[in-house]
Structure formats: structure tokens, C-alpha cells
Amino acid sequence: MPNVVERLDERLNEARARLSTLVIEPERREVGVVDSVGSGIASIVGLPSARLDELLVLPDDTHALAVTLDADRIGAVLLDRAESIVAGVEVRGSGEVLRVPVGDPLLGRVIDPLGRPLDGGAPVIGVRRDEVERPAPAIIDRELVTEPLHTGVLVVDSMVPLGRGQRELIIGDRATGKTSLALDTMLSQRTTDVVSVYCAIGQKASAVGRLIEEVRERGAFERSVFVVAEADDPPGLQWVAPYAACTMAEYFRDRGGHALLVIDDLSKHAIVHRELSLLLRNPPGREAYPGDVFYLHSRLLERAAKLSKDGGGGSLTALAIAETQSGNLSAYIPTNLISITDGQIYLESKLFHEGQKPAVNVGKSVSRVGGKTQPAAIRGLSGRLRLDYSQFLELEVFARFGQVLDPRTARSLEQGRRIRAILEQPQSEPRSLAAEVALLLALHEGVLDVLSLDAVQRFKTGIEDGLRADVGEVARRIEATGRLEDDARRRLVDWLTARAAALRPVEE
To answer: Which of 368, 411, 490, 504 is catalytic?
Structure first.
């Protein structure tokens, strides 16, 4: 019993000592009040010290972002569903801007723009939390774009080559294969060191689910991050999605790695921005878009860059998707995006419905980095391909009038049809560099001249497996060096000739 009394006395003395040093002072805390709420927007009074882009905290752990600061109120966009938010509820400032988790723990995960899991997995705990709005690298911190980014799509790699650190726009009407082209590029990174970050803005959950399953089955899912803001998510969450995804991708670039950011799509993002701006009573401009709609996307896409060696040498490549209406490239948002990016890949609905897939219009597509980013093997074989194909398209239009064609024109048409047959490619089947070089070499050396168009289609089928089985050493050298040396060229031509010869009896 005495021991118990002694222990109680000791604890009592410790408590008295702590209380003697305790300083009790009043705490000053700013509190705002929701004045009105609706359509993803909250009008808040109070919080005089709130800053622009500050993260605000509402009841039930609901968050909002302060985007307009007027003299008597704050306009905030809600980042969560607001069923429980009504006029009169309390709002507190966090003193922080919006941050998202970054790092390797995000790889192989499906998350929302705030880093919350959507795949049923454990909470995402990143290496750190970085700001969503970050400045673009300065010009002195950048380097020329010279490293190729392999897409696995022959028409792109041969005529509209992309480089690591580039900003390329994929543009076209609805349902022309824009997302499929970006998906093929992601799938092609399964054999590279590029980390893929896919950002879905306002897409259907079913469509996003199919894309994720494609990457899981055919690509490097363990080196991919999926940032999803679905069509029924709050507009504020959709608005912040591409900036959050860019921050997540920048982590890999800044530590010397390479990242690919696919934004699907910026047309919906601009519409969400217009919706929020009109609800916040900002003055509308052309097509009711606010005046800062150009800055909306330029400050995002400028963050894609190839860093200098002093900056680590990493790269962030941005593939931005945009939708046109009836092929109108001169509309407000398409022209803005074309002027921001380093080129565009234009997918034409007419070609798509004619069965030419990918439906790339090579005449209206351009990559402003040019052939500097192409592997030497492709650059040496595709020098005249774009010109020959463009001439064929003009001749084909002329030939439809039914005039009698001279033999030279007829031969050009036949060669053009073979080029088109070689450029056709099934969805979700990106080609390796060696297969692309083999197909271009077959065109260049006239190996396909003895085949009909049906035989050309059979010639392409299984070429990946055939290369690995019959001339695997040559294929590995092409993949490793990006070059086609003389001895490898001879062996590859012999193999392609034999492959074409095996199809000739079928024709005869």
C-alpha cells in the first residue's frame, strides 16, 4: 500500500510541475462561412488572410480551392462532393497550396487527382507531397530534344517522329482513334525506361477501365500511373487533374528519369474551365471562354521539357489530346493548343471510316523537332516516304475521274497502295523498332512489288515473331543501336525476300 501512495505522489508532483510551466494564451483563428454553394462552386465570406490557390477545409473533410479573391468574398471550387455543404457552415484556411503525393509508391496505382486510391488498394503514401502548380523549367535548364520516343505506330515513327521532352497534340473528331494512338505509345514503353502517366479528364469510367486493362495485359502496368477524374466527379477535381498528373510525372523527370504524360483530353478541360469561370462571374470572351484560357494550357504544357545534364538529363514528354468538331482545326481551343505544342498528329474521320487505321492525315500532321529524333535506321529509310505517300494521295484523287493512266502513273499508284497497306496497323499492337525497320526496308528495296495488296497484309502478319525466330541477332542489334549496318541490311533483305517469295505461289 505505501508503494501505491508513493507512486501517486510522484505522478501528482509531475503533473504540478507541468502545470506550473504551462502558458495559457488566447488563440487567434480565422473562420469563414459559406454564403452560397452550388454546381461545384462555393461563395465564402470571411477569411481575410486567405491567399489565391489556398486549400480551404470545410466540414466532413471536404476541400475547396480559393480561385478568386474579391473585396467581400472568396470564390472557391469544390474538390469533393458537397452533399453536406450548405450555406452557413464553417470554413477554415489551411495556409497551404494544393499538394499531391509523388514518388515510386504511385506506380501501378489508379488514383484521383488528390492522390486518393480508386483501385481498392491501400492509401497512397508518396515520397513527399509537391505543389500542383509549379513553374516550368527555365530555358537555360533545358536541352534540345534529340532522343527518340518510340510510339510503335509506323506512320508516326516514320513521318511524324516524336522526341523525349516534346509536346505533341493528338487532334481529331470524336471516335477517330486519338486515345488508341496514345495507348499504343504507352504500350510501347514496356521495353523502355519511360514511366507513363495517364490523366483522364471527364471520361466515362468504362472507357478508362478498358484502357487500364489493356495496359495491365499488354504494357508495363508496374511503371504506369493512372490519374482519373471521371465525368461525374466535381468540376474542380476535373479542373485540377492535369496539373496534378503533371506534378506526379515531373518527379521522375527531375531525378534524371524519363516520363510520358498523356492528357485525355484538353478540350473537356477547357469546357470545365469555362463552366467554373462563368459560375464565378468572370467576364466571358470568345465562345464564352474566359480570357485566360490560353494561359490555362500553356502553363501546363510548358512544364514538359528535356532537362540539361546539369539538371539531371531527365525528360517529360506530353501527349495532349484535343477534340475537333467536324474537322474544324481553326476553332478557338484547337488553334490555341496547336500554337502551344511542338506539332500535331491529325486524325481524320474520313480516313477512319474508309478503314485506314490509324487515320493519320500526314499532310496536316507535323512534328516540329523533325527527323533529329529518329533512329538512324528509320531516318535512312523514310526520307522520301512522306513525299511519295503525299504524291500518291493526289494521284489517287485524279485517278478516280476514270482517265486512262500512263504506265508510270499506274506504277506510282500501285506503290502508294502498298505504302498505305504497310502503314495500316491494328489497335493495341505497337511494333518494335526492328519490325518497323524491316517493313520500311521491304518498301525501300522493292521486296513488296511482286505481291498483291492482300499478300502485303499477310506479309505483315507475324513479322515480329518471324524476326525473333529467324534473324533474332539482327533484330537485337537494331533495337540496341538504332542503326542498320551493311551486313545486317543484307541479311534482313535476304530474309524479307524469302518471306515475300513464300507468298507468291498463293497469288499465282
So the answer is: 368
